[in-house]
Amino acid sequence: MRKAQPTVKKRSPLYVGSKLYGVRIPPPLQATLDAWIERQPDPKPTVPDALRRLAYKALACEAAPGAT
């Protein structure tokens, strides 16, 4: 009798080839992040999604012409 093959979950394109970073966030920054998430329109982003959005915004500002 053959054993059932485990099903392999397909990954979203967002995760393919990406790198995992483990980050500790101190309570004051957690509160600020939670407040930012609450101000976002529905559906509210998850914490990892919020961190990605904020990183994109910060890097876009840094790359903008005339940015210091």
Secondary structure topology:
Blueprint: H1 27-39, H2 47-63
Q: What pattern of helices and strands is seen along the backbone?
A: HH
> Largest sheet, described in full?
none
Radius of gyration: 18 Å
Mean pLDDT: 86
- Model regions low in confidence, pLDDT < 50 over at least 5 residues: none
* Individual helix count: 2
Share in β-strands: under 5%
- Outline type: elongated
Structure class: mainly alpha
**Intertermini distance:** 67 Å
| Overall strand count | 0
Residue share in helix: 40-55%
In short:
With 68 residues, the protein is mainly alpha-helical.
Describe the structure.
With 68 residues, this protein is mainly alpha-helical. The protein has a domain of 33 residues. 44% of the residues lie in helices and 0% in strands. The protein contains two helices and no strands. It starts with 26 loop residues before the first helix and ends in a 5-residue tail after the last helix.
Question: What keyword list fits this structure?
Answer:
single chain, mainly alpha, 2 helices
